[in-house]
Amino acid sequence: MNPGVWFITGVLVLIILVGAVLIAIPAFRRFAVVQLGTSVGLAVPEHLEPALRRRLVGRTVASLIGAIVGLAAAVAALQTRLVPSSESTDVAEFWLVFGGFFAGASIAAAIYALTAKPARPEGERFARSGAVDLRDYLAPIDRLGARGAVALGIVTVLAATAVSGVGLTHSNAALSIGGLIVIAGAVGLVLSEWASRRILDRPQPAGSPSELAWDDALRAQSLREIVTAPLSLGSWGSLAVLFTLVDAADSAEVGGVATFWVGAVGLVIVLIALFAAAGISIATKPQQHYLRRLWPEVAAAAKVATETRMAALKAGH
Question: Which residues contact 193 (CB under 8 A, 6 or more apart)?
Fold first, then answer.
């Protein structure tokens, strides 16, 4: 690991430590619940605030622990030369460290969502009339994006292996750091599909519509965190493979020019896809997808309230 990768590792460790300190502060926990309500489009009823705070703290602590374990595993893999240095670039190591961080957090979030005991409401229970599935909780950009990112990573590895077979030292893209990241993304996709369906099978005891709506919101948040691992690993693995391919072209005696252009064009395509996905995510607010699918009346009321506030602000000017 070069100093730049060590620096990024230090920054990620600092982020984990800051998160651990903040989540221990009661005022921040209350603030975090309010911010979560704003993000998912729900008001925070006073009687639900303590339970929401406990669930938020539990999920955050689990994610922080997972992030530090994943980061440590990535650093250990690099330090023990799990991947030969001749199959590595500094950029690939950078993405492996990031991948370990986010994959660890994602796995921990899945474990917490699968093992946390749901609160048992007192008195009568409120139940939903129809069944739900992943399409109700995950927007297409999340659900299909994770699958697409892994597919893109696999295609990138296969293409890189095909074009780097002559005259290049990085001849086996599947065994490069980028290739291993893509493989981890494929495994993560299988596990995320399994975990997501197990989460949907869990009961949702609720004593009121607001309790059920908030349970839906937290369930959707957990599912989005789970698909973060394959989505990130597939995307970042593609970038790592392509950067490695371009780097290999510089020292190639045969086929270097062709390999360089394949890698460069691939990088442009992947980056355009990532920026397009980010733009769609910002525009569509996937964190409120569940609200539009399962609670359309709440989403409509929130939209009207937002439009009213905007109109009032414009009138004030």
Answer: none
Mean pLDDT, to the nearest integer, of 205-228? 87
Judge contact between 267 and 239, C-beta under 8 A: yes
DSSP class of 86: G
- pLDDT on residue 67: 94
CA distances from residue 30 to 34, 95, 119, 310 in whole angstroms, order as listed: 7, 34, 19, 27
Inter-residue contact 95 to 181 (CB < 8 Å): yes
Q: Are 293 and 216 in contact (CB under 8 A)?
A: no
The average confidence (pLDDT) of the chain is 80
Nearest CA-CA partner of 60 in 21, 9, 114, 99: 21
Phi, psi of 91 (to 5 degrees): -65, -40
Which among 211, 257, 292 is positioned nearest to 48, based on CA atoms?
211
Backbone angles phi, psi at 155, to 5 degrees: -60, -40
Q: Is pLDDT above 60 for 102?
A: yes
Q: Is 237:149 a contact under the CB 8 Å cutoff?
A: no
Angle, vertex CA 226, rays to CA 222 and CA 228, nearest 5: 120
Helix (H, G, I), strand (E, B) or coil at 117: coil
Other beta carbons less than 10 A from residue 267's beta carbon = 18
How many CA atoms lie within 13 Å of 43's alpha carbon, on the beta-carbon side? 9
Q: How many residues does the chain have?
A: 317
Burial 165-195 (b: 16+ CB within 10 A, else e): eeebebeebbbbbbbbbbbbbbebbebbbeb
Instruction: Give dist(CA 120, CA 163) in Å, integer.
Output: 58
Tell the residue number behind the tokens 């048992």, with chain if given. Answer: 120
Q: What is the pTM of this model?
A: 0.80
List of residues 6+ apart from 186 with CB closer than 8 A:
150, 153, 154, 230, 234
